[in-house]
Structure formats: C-alpha cells, structure tokens
Write a structure and sequence with these properties.
This protein is mainly alpha-helical. It has a single domain, classed as Alpha/alpha barrel (Glycosyltransferase). The chain contains 14 helices and 5 strands. A 3-stranded mixed β-sheet has the order 1-3-2, covered by helices on one side. A two-stranded antiparallel sheet has the order 4-5. A hairpin with a 4-residue loop joins strand 2 and strand 3. Helix 7 runs antiparallel to helix 9 and helix 12 runs parallel beside helix 14. The longest helix has 30 residues.
Length: 455
C-alpha cells in the first residue's frame, strides 16, 4: 500500500430532516436489523491476538465510508461514539502495521469530514442514516442529543493530535495535517453550534441547590439513554466536556462562553457536582431522591475519556470514590462471579421495539466499553490521589473483558445480565470491532505491558 495517503477531497453532502425523512430512516434501519438477523455469521472463540487482527480488518476496512461498530445498526453513523467509544483509534500501541495506520487515518478523516459537514448543515442529531450516494438523513430517535457535538469535537481532536504520540508511522503526521485543515475550515461552524448549546442551558433549583442544566425542562439524550429522562447527570456532564473540548481546540473562547453562562466554567462544574452529588455520591438523575443509593446510580457516571472528571480537587475525588465504592460493593451491579458491571440495578421501561429489535441501553445489561472507562477512571483516581486504591479493581475488570472476548469470539457491544451475548429477536448480538483499540490502550495503562504478543 502506498505510504502517501490520498485523503478525501471535498464532496457535496446533502442532509435531510423532517417527518418523511425520519420515516425513510426507520425503514432503512429496520432493513439493517432484519439483514443482520438472518445473514450475520459468527466466529468461534479464539486467542486474543487473532480476534484483534480480525476486528481491525473489519473495523478499518477500505470499503467503509465511516467508522462504525459492527452492530446491526452500524450502517447508521453515531457521531457521539467518537467521545464514548472511539478515542484511541490512532493510538500507535494499538496499530498493527503501517497499512493498518493508513487505513485508520483515511477512515477517521472521512468520518470527521462528514460529521463537520452535518454541523455546517445544522444537522446535530444522535444518528445519521445513509440514504444514497452522499445523501444522509439526520434523526433523533428519542430526544435532542447532549453529546453529539462532544463526539464530533473528540473525533476532530484525535486526528489533529495524531502526531503527538511517539510513532514511526508517516500516516500520523499526514493525518494531523489533514485534521488541522479541517479545524481551520470548520471552526466557525463549530463555534456557532457550541454557543447555541450554551444558550440552551436553563437555570434549575432543587432543594436550595442551583445549576445550569441542558435538560431542565425537556429530555436530552446521551449514549446510554433510551428512556428520555430529564435532569440526568451524564447528559449535563457531556455538555461541560463539550465546552472544555471546544476551548482546547481553539474553536471557542473561554471568556465568550463564560459570558453566556453568567459564571466561570469552574463554578459551572462545581454547581453540577453539588447538585448531583448532594447525597455524597453521584445520582443518575434528580428524580431519584426516594430510592436507596445503589438504585439511584448508573455506571455511566464515569463519563468519557478526557471528559468531565479531572479529579484534581480533593472534593471531586471524594465524590468519585464514594460513588465507585457503592458500585463495587453492590452485588446486583455485577454479573455473578465476575467484575463485569451492569449499567444500573433496574431495567428500563422496555418498549416493544426493544424486545424485538434493539438493545435497551440502560438497565441490567453490561457494556464492556463502559467497564473499560470505569477502569480508566479508577486509574485516573489513583494517579491524581497518589494512591493504589483501585488498580486491582481496574485490572480485574479488564481481565474479565478479555475472557469474555475470547469466549464469545470478539469484543462485545453488550453482554446480558448473565454474561452471555445480548440478543433479542432481531438483534443477534454484535462484535464491536471499532471499540477494541480503546480496550488495548487501557490494558497497557493498567498492566504496563501490551495485551498483544506482537506489540
């Protein structure tokens, strides 16, 4: 393969929204699920090296138009996944060879360019469904997103900084150059979208504690939400992380944001922590005052890589540790005899479509990647506190994910309550190929050595 990357040229994308477009998108997605239900082929269990090489080949194939997971809904694109699930696509430690590096850079650049075109067209939705050559439908299945802009910024940040880690791959410097061109070309569109998000925040007062919320009066969705709840911690943490990313990339000025918010960013964050941490742990949402502590926590409080938690202040570390300890101590959070942690103690309000076609992202199912982020935040805590409090817990999580990956023939998108592949009638489980590199990155951090024998 030629080491000189030919990156995508400017293309004329067209985006559609509205009732008719949403109907078409739903039909396309239904066809995707049915095709997966009857055509998916499963791999047998294998050693981790073999499974990883297969996943990389599938995830970063030259035939792909966008970075996708491998799930039955993978032919639709989820910009927020670049914050939640794809933060280490360009980690040199996870790249197999120069050809793999080239494929990854090409695919990430195409993915980011498409997402930026959507922002320019004012299509900031949870889901983008392909509807023909360079034609896309923007759709929200439950409510407006809180984390789509965060995902777009995270994807852009990743390619802009591709050459900042030690690497022998020429593709990294070429990708970083392409990323800087994208940042320069679309920074105005991103700034507009971030400021609109800031303007949408509303003051909210609860038992004498006040904060600005993105979902004070109407739901906003994040990657784990199918219940369209209001006043959730993770949706508001995503908004704070979006502002932080925008400032880091130079897309928006901190002073300009703070004028709109009417307070400094640090104060904005402290208010969120006081509001959602008013009981001494992080509550999933503000409507759970009458439930016992473990029932009012969801694992997605760990948020995303380079997201809400920086753990620099003692009070923030104390709140994170109290919430972590509640999860670790509650047997109902675990798949029995493992360190696989479920999203929460309770099932969501399952609708018929969830039983037939789609996974219920909240409730008693396990996302391996949220477990990886849980492990990574534990390592963050130990690093910031100068202790070795949670390293063994983080290592146990990662070992169990490795075991499940080898048993089930690949890195799983979801595991059921009993630790098996998550399956509904139409959703016959999914191997999350593109999420595998993130697991390798955190494994190296936790154990100090690469998971793969060849690295």
């Amino acid at each position: 393969m030629n080491s000189q990357i030919v990156l995508s040229s400017h293309r004329e994308y067209r985006f559609y929204q509205g009732l008719l477009a949403s109907g078409v998108a739903n039909l396309i997605q239904a066809a995707n699920f049915l095709g997966d239900r009857f055509l998916r082929k499963y791999r047998l269990s294998a050693a981790i090296d073999e499974l990883y090489r297969h996943s990389v080949g599938m995830a970063f194939s030259e035939s792909e138009a966008f970075l996708v997971t491998g799930a039955p809904h993978a032919s639709a694109y989820y910009p927020r996944d670049f914050a939640w699930f794809y933060p280490d696509v360009l980690d040199p430690e996870t790249i197999i060879d120069s050809d793999d590096a080239i494929r990854r850079v090409r695919l990430l650049e195409k993915s980011v360019r498409l997402m930026l075109e959507a922002v320019r067209a004012d299509v900031v939705t949870t889901t983008i469904v392909p509807a023909g050559r360079d034609r896309y439908i923007g759709i929200n299945y439950f409510s407006l997103p809180s984390d789509t802009l965060l995902g777009i910024l995270a994807g852009l940040d990743q390619i802009v900084s591709a050459d900042q880690r030690p690497s022998s791959y020429l593709a990294m410097s070429q990708g970083a150059h392409a990323g800087r061109l994208l940042l320069a070309g679309y920074s105005g569109d991103l700034r507009r979208a971030i400021l609109e998000l800031a303007k949408s925040l509303q003051p909210f007062v609860h038992n004498g504690l006040s904060a600005l919320l993105c979902d004070a009066s109407a739901p906003r969705s994040a990657a784990t939400d199918t219940r369209a709840e209001r006043r959730r911690f993770v949706t508001n943490a995503c908004v704070y992380a979006t502002f932080l990313r925008g400032i880091r990339l130079g897309v928006v000025e901190q002073a300009e944001l703070e004028r709109l918010l009417g307070r400094g960013l640090a104060q904005y964050k402290r208010e969120l922590l006081r509001l959602f941490g008013r009981h001494g742990y992080v509550s999933h949402a503000l409507d759970f005052d009458n439930e016992p502590p473990a029932s009012s926590i969801a694992l997605d409080f760990v948020n995303v890589h380079l997201g809400f938690w920086d753990l620099n202040e003692a009070s923030e570390r104390e709140l994170f540790a109290a919430t972590t300890d509640l999860v670790l101590a509650e047997p109902r959070f675990r798949i029995p005899e493992t360190s696989h942690f479920l999203v929460s103690l309770d099932n969501p309000q399952n609708k018929i479509i969830h039983k037939i076609a789609a996974p219920a992202y909240q409730g008693r199912s396990c996302w391996p990647t949220f477990n990886v982020e849980f492990a990574d935040r534990m390592l963050d805590y130990d690093e910031c506190s100068g202790t070795d409090t949670y390293r063994s817990n983080a290592q146990a999580i990662l070992r169990d994910i490795r075991r499940a990956t080898e048993v089930h023939g690949g890195y799983q998108e979801l595991l059921s309550e009993n630790g098996q592949k998550y399956q509904t009638w139409a959703y016959q489980s999914a191997v999350a190929h593109s999420w595998f590199p993130r697991f390798l990155t955190v494994w190296k951090r936790a154990f100090g050595t690469s998971l793969l024998s060849g690295n």
